Amino acid sequence: xxxxxxxxxxxxxxxYIDESDVEDxxxxxxxxxxxxxxxxxxxxxxxxxxxxxxxxxKNSDTTIYMACCGNDKIGSIRFEDNGEVEKVSVMLNPxxxxxxxxxxxxxxGTWKFISEKKPGKPVVAEIKRDNIASxxxxxxxxxxxxxxxxxxxxxxxxxx
Length: 160
Known about the structure:
With 160 residues, the protein is of the alpha+beta class. The chain has a single domain (12-140), classed as Aminopeptidase (3-Layer(aba) Sandwich). It is built from five helices and five strands. A hairpin with a 4-residue loop joins strand 3 and strand 4 (86-92). The chain is globular.
């Protein structure tokens, strides 16, 4: 069920995630549309997700913000130090997709991260080619396409 929402008037606030967010992130990540656009499309098991969550909130190389509008949790944005770059990923609460919030969360969340953490390295998003909504959201947020990566899948390769 989609929620009636006017993104033009939306005031988005960010806070660090905490233990109260573990179930929301689990539910969002297991939503069929979110899974379809994830690199790992398999459904999550709660126990494994909970262990991952606990590791991430303690990891100094990971920063995760919850984006809120009033009392509504509308999405999350995660930054992970990968040595050469900071990788960013965003996940919207499925109730708030299609409302123009993705690019706002990306833009505001990225500026918040840069101003707080001062990483001194590029912030990079890896997006599946067919995830048009995410591509457009990152472009609207000010990200530019840099390069294309090709992956060889030996299951699909034909050597005959």
